[in-house]
Q: What sequence folds into this?
């Protein structure tokens, strides 16, 4: 994804940093950086009774046909899920595969009464595009924000990505072209640690 | 500030919402939405020994001349601070005034190893502009991010605001014009609460 956005030179994520940032927060999901994982399976998913306190109920859809997963997805083994909805399945027999994800964190805007979610990244693996999974992931975020009584969902989009902008506008989003991203990082940020005034 | 940015129509903040969003979080400052207040006084500020656990030490500058505050600031009483650095001063004799603020919240970017701060808004009251207070507020945020071991500070800037963009670039920031803001809120967000698929 960083390559697609031409941002490989700023990419510093490691498996450890991802683990620390997503799973070691003392805050519950959606009150700290949180990933929603899009999983697919040729078998029906169990309609489990979730008794979590995180205010999130997994969204299960059965209207897809994944009988020929091996033909569709040539990296199937790489993306085999170790989590089958009941907990970790270390037997590696879990017939569930990761097809995409979305990453959000709680946000705030001083002009709004209620806090929100910032959608940091959304990704669907290439072989699963055109199946409305982007819509599914985006809807899951918007539904969650609404359910938690939040006032907004914010995200950034590249101006050359017309198809994506159209997609978001169809979902009801406001595209605000005049707001541009500024970012301080690396040496320029570290320099502030050495300044005395 | 919302008027200046042409965003009065989306402004829904109330005193209560501001209080709830900024002061009722179970998380410490900078781990939830946090405001830094720029206060000025004709008297020297006390160099107090701060024993807070919030990892923030107030920045005190004495190289300003505010002997004629009443002439400079015609809304002085409105902005008299009730907080004098030692706690609330209900006697209303506190000779300290609010000149500006900056609002931040913790952010995350999946391409970066370390989390960061998102700078939501920065404001210096009109009569205090041109005194490098913007630089002071921005530096305070960058220094705090660096001190907390964060990897970035992100914010948005209006593309027509050339002076501000130049200011940020001089501070070492990267201006990334291709990233534009998308925002889902109001009726369009609420619609997702009613959707079943």
A:
């Amino acid at each position: 994804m960083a390559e697609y956005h031409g941002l490989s030179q700023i990419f510093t994520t490691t498996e450890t940093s991802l683990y620390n940032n997503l799973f070691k927060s003392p805050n519950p999901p959606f009150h700290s950086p949180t990933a929603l994982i899009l999983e697919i399976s040729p078998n029906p998913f169990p309609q489990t009774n979730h008794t979590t306190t995180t205010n999130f109920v997994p969204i299960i859809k059965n209207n897809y046909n994944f009988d020929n997963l091996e033909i569709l997805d040539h990296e199937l083994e790489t993306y085999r899920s170790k989590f089958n909805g009941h907990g970790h399945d270390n037997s590696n027999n879990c017939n569930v595969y990761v097809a995409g994800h979305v990453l959000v964190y709680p946000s705030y805007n001083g002009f709004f009464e209620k806090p929100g979610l910032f959608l940091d990244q959304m990704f669907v693996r290439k072989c699963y595009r055109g199946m409305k999974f982007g819509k599914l992931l985006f809807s899951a975020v918007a539904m969650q924000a609404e359910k938690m009584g939040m006032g907004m969902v914010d995200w950034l989009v590249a101006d050359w990505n017309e198809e994506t902008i159209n997609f978001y506008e169809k979902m009801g989003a406001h595209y605000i072209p005049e707001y541009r991203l500024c970012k301080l990082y690396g040496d320029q940020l570290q320099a502030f640690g050495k300044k005395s005034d």
The two ends of chain A are 39 Å apart (CA to CA). The CA atoms of residues 114 and 149 of chain A lie 8 Å apart. The longest strand of chain A covers residues 174-185. Chain A touches chain B through 73 residues (CB under 8 Å).
